[in-house]
Amino acid sequence: MLKLLRPAVTRVLTPLGRALIRRGISPDMVTAAGTLGTVAAALFFYPRGELFPGSLVITFFVLADLLDGVMARMTGPGSVWGAFLDSTLDRVGDAGIFSGLVMWFVVSGQRTLAGVALFCLVAGAVVSYVKARAEGLGLSCDVGLAERPERLVMVLVSAGLGGLGVPYILAAGLWLLAAASAFTVVQRLLHVRRQAASTSPRPLR
């Protein structure tokens, strides 16, 4: 759903990307810096219960995930290494965000929400794995209700508003995210199954 906003975001980030390239900063450097900042902010702010400032700082670094893509398109066809690095570090960033929330819930005695946050982390990883494995087998899997951008928006908005004192918003956001992630896993599995059923059997090893 958020893919519809990508052209507008690209136009906004293009001048910044061009300036960074002129200074010799590569897309891979931006990817690594964004992930490092995301994980550091999540593990510093969230376990302390500083959900609003933490969400703001994390959002700033998450934008690097869009900026590196803009820069990669400016410098020519994207490299295989760059795509691999970006996908791998996305998982690291997600782990940092949800680990910070889990730590906060445990410290504050909200063990049920700690479990929900942990489920969101695992389900998000499975969502990404299903797509990667399908594409590795030559199938398409570009479907899903809750892809990574949607998952990030849901968790950061609910955590930020929860940090401002909006009652029940964080719990509601996490439960909704858990349900959407589980639905997306099933959605992708069925999508891949339909494609696999229409192809000739072939050895997978």
Which characteristics define this entry?
single chain; Four Helix Bundle (Hemerythrin (Met), subunit A)
Q: Which percent bin holds the helix content?
A: over 70%
CATH C-level label: Mainly Alpha
CATH topology label:
Four Helix Bundle (Hemerythrin (Met), subunit A)
Number of domains: 1
Mean pLDDT metric: 89
Instruction: Report how far apart the termini are.
Output: 35 Å
Strand content: under 5%
SSE order: HHHHHHHH
Unreliable segments (pLDDT under 50, ≥5 consecutive)? none
Overall radius of gyration: 18 Å
Structural class: mainly alpha
DSSP strand count? 0
The H-level CATH homologous superfamily, spelled out, is: CDP-alcohol phosphotransferase transmembrane (TM) domain
CATH architecture level-2 label = Up-down Bundle
Give a short account of the largest sheet.
Answer: none
Q: Tally the helices: what do you get?
A: 8
CA-based shape? globular
Describe this protein's structure:
- This protein has 205 residues and is an all-alpha fold.
- It has one domain: Up-down Bundle (Four Helix Bundle (Hemerythrin (Met), subunit A)), CATH 1.20.120.1760.
- Helix content is 77%, strand content 0%.
- It is built from 8 helices and no strands.
- The chain is globular, with a radius of gyration of 18 Å.
- The model has no long low-confidence stretch (mean pLDDT 89).
- It is found in: Cell membrane.
Gist of the model:
The protein has 205 residues and is mainly α. The protein is built from eight helices and no strands. The longest helix has 29 residues.
